[in-house]
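2024-03-11 09:14:02 INFO worker-7 job=invfold-0412 stage=load source=structure_tokens
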């Protein structure tokens, strides 16, 4: 699609994610972002979002034709979107979180052709109602298809597991058939009662919703290496793991990697348990090397997973979206692997790869859904209808 074609696109206002919330108005193909409001669990962030929405609605005489939002029904941004859509008499369009991450890359690079997307982050509600976060997607202008996901781990205690990486390490041990090690490994650090309670949750599958989250796999790896058991800041464990990997790679030495590589099953599930298992037996003197090995092996596995999908669908572009791509070690190695396979690799350059840039993807998806609806209506009418410019 050439630049002039974007003037025919409808205007959409998107209200963003729960974490690092920012709204975005897509007008004639050009995004206008609000400031980042923060997390919508904070009432002040909700007030700021409402003010930003009012400003974005009034910043151009063009009419907003839809309000886009996350699929999660309980988010303040979703409820606000539904209310605004009713007041304006326009549709409210829900967009799956990881679809929006990849669509944000497509919007920034103005892509119309289908892409393979790797959406890697902490969490987002999936279209099946589960917690997603490690997703292989086939994305085109009108929609997406989930091709695969990371092997799911249980979240012992639900959301608290995202704040306490030791729980994810315990979940990984349970998934590896090594549940008997949980109490011995963690009781001294977190208390015998907590360690025992988590073991029982995992055994009984009580308060352990599954997640395919890449962020939780990073938490499990960091805790397995003793780098972070409880977090005081978001992504603290993943950052500690990346820093350890960076120290080792800075020595110029290649890390030793395990003999067993991750596997992909017939459903497209990438099983990272073989990467994690050796980390529980690493001596403290080898922590940095093990962290580097986890990163480089993960990048290679993700590249092979995405490249196979690209070959199957005869697609030459892979888009990377989601907060895990703030990790420079992962992003650099994954990009190198994919480019060596002859694939074009794109990620956000002007906008955040994380949730602060998500609203652009929501708006992009909604715009193209409106175009499809308009085209269909035109085809069903006997009178002539001005058709939007078509992709070149």
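2024-03-11 09:14:09 INFO worker-7 stage=emit residues=392
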């Amino acid at each position: 699609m050439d630049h002039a074609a974007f003037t025919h696109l409808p205007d959409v206002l998107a209200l963003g994610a729960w974490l690092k919330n920012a709204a975005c108005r897509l007008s004639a193909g050009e995004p206008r972002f609000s400031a980042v409001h923060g997390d919508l669990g904070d009432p002040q962030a909700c007030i700021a979002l409402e003010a930003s929405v009012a400003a974005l609605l009034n910043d151009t005489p063009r009419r907003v034709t839809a309000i886009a939002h996350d699929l999660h029904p309980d988010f303040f941004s979703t409820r606000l979107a539904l209310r605004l859509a009713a007041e304006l008499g326009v549709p409210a369009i829900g967009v799956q979180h990881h679809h929006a991450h990849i669509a944000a890359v497509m919007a920034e690079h103005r892509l119309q052709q289908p892409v393979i997307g790797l959406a890697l982050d902490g969490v987002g509600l999936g279209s099946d109602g589960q917690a997603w976060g490690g997703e292989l997607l086939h994305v085109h202008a009108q929609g997406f298809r989930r091709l695969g996901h990371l092997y799911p781990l249980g979240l012992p205690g639900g959301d608290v597991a995202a704040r306490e990486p030791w729980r994810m390490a315990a979940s990984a041990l349970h998934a590896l058939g090594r549940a008997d090690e949980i109490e011995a490994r963690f009781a001294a650090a977190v208390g015998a009662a907590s360690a025992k309670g988590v073991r029982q949750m995992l055994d009984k599958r009580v308060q352990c919703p599954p997640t395919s989250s890449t962020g939780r796999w990073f938490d499990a790896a960091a805790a397995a290496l003793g780098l972070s058991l409880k977090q005081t800041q978001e992504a603290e464990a993943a950052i500690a793991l990346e820093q350890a990997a960076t120290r080792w790679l800075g020595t110029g030495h290649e890390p030793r990697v395990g003999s067993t590589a991750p596997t992909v099953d017939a459903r497209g599930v990438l099983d990272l348990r073989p990467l994690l298992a050796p980390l529980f037996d690493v001596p403290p003197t080898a922590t940095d090397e093990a962290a580097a090995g986890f990163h480089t092996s993960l990048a290679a596995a993700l590249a092979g997973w995405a490249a196979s999908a690209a070959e199957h669908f005869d697609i030459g572009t892979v888009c990377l979206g989601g907060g895990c791509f703030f990790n420079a070690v992962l992003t650099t190695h994954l990009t190198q692997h994919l480019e060596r396979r002859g694939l074009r690799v794109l990620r956000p350059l002007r906008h955040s790869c994380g949730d602060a840039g998500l609203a652009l993807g929501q708006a992009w998806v909604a715009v193209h859904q409106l175009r499809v609806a308009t085209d269909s209506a035109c085809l069903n009418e006997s009178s002539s209808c001005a058709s939007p410019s078509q992709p070149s």
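2024-03-11 09:14:09 INFO worker-7 stage=report msg="The chain has two domains: 3-95+354-380, 153-346."
2024-03-11 09:14:10 INFO worker-7 job finished
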